[in-house]
Amino acid sequence: LLLPSYVTALYHRFITSRHAKPATSAPKKQSKTAYLDGLRGVAALIVYIFHFNYLFWPILKNGYGSSASDTYIFQLPVLRVLHSGRSSVTIFFIISGFVLTLKTVTAIHRSANSSHDVLDGLAGSLFRRPFRLYLPILMSTAITAILAQASSNVFIPNLQGGDIPPRKGSWGEQFWHWLSVTEHMVNPFQAVTGRQNLWGNDYNGHLWTIPTEFKGSVMVFVLMLAFCRSKRWAHFVGVLGAGYWQMVKGDFDQTLFCVGLVLAELSIIVPTDLKMVNRGLKHGVTVALAILGCHLMSYPEARGPSSPGFRTLSGMVPTFYKGNEDRIQQFWISVGSILFVLALMYSPVVSGQWWKRRVQGTDSGEDDQGEPLLQKLFTNGFSQYLGQISYSLYLWHGMVNHLIGLRYLHPMSQEWNASETGINSLVGEGFTDQAAAARSAALSTYTWKWAWTFLFNTFVLFWVSDVFHRGVDVYAVRLTRKLSTWALASN
User: Fold this and answer.
1) Could you please report the per-residue DSSP string of 310-374?
2) Which sequence ranges are marked TM in the entry (predicted)?
3) Is the pTM of this model over 0.85?
C-alpha cells in the first residue's frame, strides 16, 4: 500500500513477463472526454510547478521584457503556460462545469417529455458533491495536523517566515483547532464573494479554491434545474447571461463554471466530429485558437501592463478589473482558458493514414479512426495518470514543498545572498570582470541545487499523491457512492 502504483506495476510486469501470454483483447477505448481528465492532471502538475519554482525563482512572476533584467526564456508568452498556476486554476473550474453537467444535459436532450432522469441525476450529483470534495480534505488536513503537532520542524516556513500549519500546545488543542478550521471550511452557507474574501485553510493554504468549487457546482446544478423544462435557446441565453453578469461584477471564477455548462451543451448540439467543415480548415482554426488561448493564459503575475504583448490588453477589461494587476490577469487568463478548452474540444481527428492520403491528394475529408490532434497531448498514458491522481496532487503539493523543498531553499538563499554581498564588493572596487565571473559561478551552483531539489521534491510528491489517491481518494469516491445509494430514495 505504501509503494506507488507505478513501482508495483513495474515489479509485477518484470515478474510475470516470462510467463505472460500475448494480449489477445483490444486495448480499452477511452471516453470522449478522456482528454479533460488528462488536462486536469497536467493543470494540477503545473500548479505544483508554479508554487515550487516561484519560491526559488520569483523573477518568473514578471512579464518578459517588462524590465532590462526580465529576459528569461520561460518568461516568454506561451512558454509561461508551463508554470502559470493561476491559469491552471481557471482550467479546473471550466472542466468542473463541463464534467458535472454533461450527463444531466445529455439526459435533458434525450428526455424531451420527461424530467425524471434529469431530476434523478441532479439530486444524485448535488448530494454527492460535498462528500467528494471534502472527505479527502478531512483526511489530508488531519494528517497535516498530526505531523505539525508531532514535531516543530516538520514543516519549514517560507523565506518570509510564515505559511506553515500551526503547532498548538497540546494534542487536545491541536484537535480542537483542526476541528474549528474544518468546520469553517466545509460550511456550505459561508459567503464566497469572488476572490475578495478568499480564505485558505490553516493546514493547507491552497484549499481556498474548494469553497469556490462547491459554490460553482451548486450554481450549475441550480441553473440546470431552472432551465431543464425550458427551450434550449432559453437555457443558453440564461446561462450565458448569468455568466456574463458574474464576470462584469468581478466573479469570473463562477463565470467559468457557466462556460463549462455551455460547452457541455454545445458538445451535444454541435458535435465535435462535425463533418460539414473542411478538416484542414478546422485544424488551422483550432490550432490558432489554442495558441491564442495560451498567449492569454500567459498574462504575467507582475508587470503585465509593461510587458510586450500585454500592454494594450491591460486596458481592455471591464471596469471592475481596471487598475488592479491581479484582476486584469484573472480576466485575461480566464478568457485564454476558455479559448484553449474550446480548441481542444473541436480539434479534428488526425492520423498517419490521413497525412498519407493528404500527400497523395486522395483525402476525402471523411473522419478515420484516429484521435483529435490537440487532444493527443492529454490522452497519453502520463497525462491520464496525472488525471487520476490530480486531486491528491493538488492536496499535497503545498505540504511537500514545506516538508522538502523549503528545507533546501533556506541554505541556498543564504549562500546566494552571501555571494551577492561579495560580488557587490568586487563591483565597488572596480573588479567588474571578476564580479561577472563570480555571479555566473554562483548562479550555476544555485541552478544545479535547485534542479536536484526539484527532482527530489517531485519524486516525494508523486509518491505521496499516488499512495493517498489509492489509500484515501479512491475509497472516498466509493463511500460517496454508497452514501448516495443508501440515502436517496429508490424508484
Assistant:
1) TTTGGGSS-GGGTT-HHHHHHHHHHHHHHHHHHHHHTPPEE-HHHHHHHHHT---S---S-EETT
2) 38-57, 89-112, 133-156, 207-226, 331-350
3) yes
